[in-house]
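Data availability (excerpt). The following record was deposited with the supplementary files.
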Amino acid sequence: MTSDRERVLVTGATGTTGRLLLRGLALHADVVPASRTADRSVPSGVRFVWGEPQTYVQALAGVSAVYLVPPTGVPDPAGLITEFVRLATDRGVRRVVLHGAQSISSSDPGLGAVQRALPSLAPEWAVLRPSWFMQNLVGDHHLARTLREESVLRTATAKGRVAFVDVEDLAAVGVAALVGGRLDREVVVTGPEALGYDEVAAVLSSETGRKVRHVSVDEDSLAASLAPAFGPAFGRLLAGMDTRIGAGEWNDPTDEVLRVAGRPPATLRDFVRRHASELGASR
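Predicted structure:
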């Protein structure tokens, strides 16, 4: 017996967003999880490696929609991604949803060039541009490490604000973008409120019982502290983004989670309560 459900390819399927997308999409489509290790780590997964075209063909078999997570560690991924999208549409893919970032606009080089080209490459398309993830406070993110080890959030954002988004809300928007009505636009996905890191520390303190502090440093100091883990160039890039946050560049919440996914986005307090044990709650 054959399924009449759409077949959707999710690249980056073993990542934070990918795992949540798989769970949400399973109710609506036949999902093909794809990543460098998905053939070994995810049921029905296929191996997909950027820059290895032989892995593209199997991943695209019978697929009508694709969620694209750009390759990591590639300064200019435009060539790789546009080549793949052309192959995908030649093989019958109708809809392409690109995972971008609020910090990258279509006027930027690199991934921005893909965002500019996508409307002419895919019959139906969307670019999801999420704000900073609430999940950066847990796991292996550098903020999570200093929070866990020192009860400190160390940034160069000064009094700048960020409309942090829960990845679960991003995944809900991704599901709607892949199997719901066509969007054909960029979607800036944020949480419901813009918070400075002083306020983030206050929420963490009140909800976990820990005394969490925001330590504000300058861009050079932050870049130097990040360099051992990320290398000088990427450490400088991350620190520079903090400076841009401090200048108010990305401080406006949107209503896209409600508009596209049909549900209100989680607040940071909601997220902290849900992840209290991971955040070291003392009560």
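Summary of structural features: Residues 232-246 form the longest helix (15 residues).
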